[in-house]
Amino acid sequence: MLSLETIEAPRPAHITPEQCEHLKAEANEICAWLVNDARAMPSPTATFSAFCERIQDAGVPLDRASLAIETRHAEQSGLGWFWEAGNGTDLKTFPYGAMRDEVYLRSPFAWVHETGEWLHLDICKTGDDRFGIIPELKDAGFTDYICAPMPFEATNQNGMSFATKSPGGFAPQHVALLKRVLPTYKLVAEVMALNFRVKTVLRTYVGDEPQKRILAGDIHRGEVVRIRSAIMFIDMRNFTPLSMNMGADELAEFLNRYYDCLVPSIVHHGGEVLKFVGDGVLAVFRTGGNGAAQACLRALEAARDVMDAVNRERNGGPGPKFNIKVALHFGRVAYGNVGSGDRLDFTVIGRDVNIASRLSTLCGQLERTLLVSGDFRDRINNIVEFIPAGTHYLRGVSKKQNVFEPAE
Asked: For the segment 25-72, what is each residue's pLDDT rounded down to a tens digit?
């Protein structure tokens, strides 16, 4: 871990009265923009870019800046925004464990997170071994560097850095302006980080479109939203006997390998995973503006990609192997919140969901990997060739269903 000794490049402390008045005016203008206008910007990336440009417009010779925010996301530990004058902002994600690796531990951000203090470095006078980033900054021609902590109420591993190539570095009035505006930016960034966590948590557990409706207040207890779509239901063959021989940790790892074969292909073809039910996955491919045929074609391509991914896993992956059953249907899906009091569950219901689920069961009975309903086949039978697989009663469905499988 880095030493916690104070590190600050010597700077003249004097700011003239004229500079002080200009500083106050510029800082107040930036803070007013942050409070009134920045909140309406389309994304944190756009806000950070505009903030850096306003810092430049205020007379600060800013050439590079970065913002790091801890997210506590299901798949990543944080997000980083990297702005460069004339080139805009790049957004990067930090995987779990990033704050324990050597790159972070030897960074200025680790120092400011540990001390809670601002760090101001004269790059030309700082040894290459002081922080891992120093040689890079020198090679790129930077002369001065500032790193500041930005603790939030829920997370502490946040911060911002500023760098310049100006021969004189950051003057006292530049540093004073940054210190004056950063607390206001922190408030805006904290709200954006909270919104990000809420949206990503909801998206992770209920899907993209439902999370938008929930946050908009459109889904109340008992209210149902109906969507017309191609419906996919996938489950695993012989999951119960397989799972009975596994411990909890092994089972979780096994299911994650299984879902990794399914979800990426579904998402790649424009599908939405609405529900995980044990080993079952329910996904929809909305008709949108392209119509029913395109939705069914996307669902069929996704199903084929899923089967390919499962075959690759079976042939090359470690651990227990699995087979799947895939059912495709076309109809209406209804979803909403049900429950009591303050404990609700997002659920997916409807006759067509039941048909897709029962069709998956039929796959096992007929020893098929992929079956489609007559309603699905009718949407694309002039594009894709299907082979009849019989007419069958499905449990809970009153009428017999015509069932097909793709010819290839």
From this structure: 899 999 999 999 987 888 889 999 999 999 999 999 999 999 998 876
| In contact, 172 and 188? CB cutoff 8 Å | no
pLDDT in tens, 223-245: 777 889 999 999 988 888 788 88
Q: What angle do CA 7, 12, 13 make, to 5 degrees?
A: 95
Secondary structure (3-state) at 115: helix
AA letter at 327: A
CA triplet 44, 49, 54: central angle to 5 degrees?
A: 125
In angstroms, the CA 269 to CA 48 distance is: 32
* Homologous superfamily, domain 207-406: Nucleotide cyclase, GGDEF domain (3.30.70.1230)
Task: Give alpha helix (H) positions in 236-390.
Answer: 239-244, 248-268, 291-316, 351-366, 374-380
Please tell me the distance from the alpha carbon of residue 105 to that of residue 85, in angstroms, as a whole number: 27
Rounded to an integer, what distance in angstroms lies between the CA atom of residue 402 and that of residue 11? 81
DSSP 3-state assignment of 219?
coil
Query: For the chain, which residues make up each domain, given as ranges?
Result: 17-204, 207-406
Six token digits for residue 166 = 């100006």
Terminal-to-terminal C-alpha distance of the chain: 59
Residues facing residue 403 across a β-bridge: 373
Statement: 17-204 belongs to CATH 3.60.21.10? no
Pull the structure tokens for residue 126: 């700082």
pLDDT by residue (tens digit) across 164-179?
A: 999 989 999 999 999 9
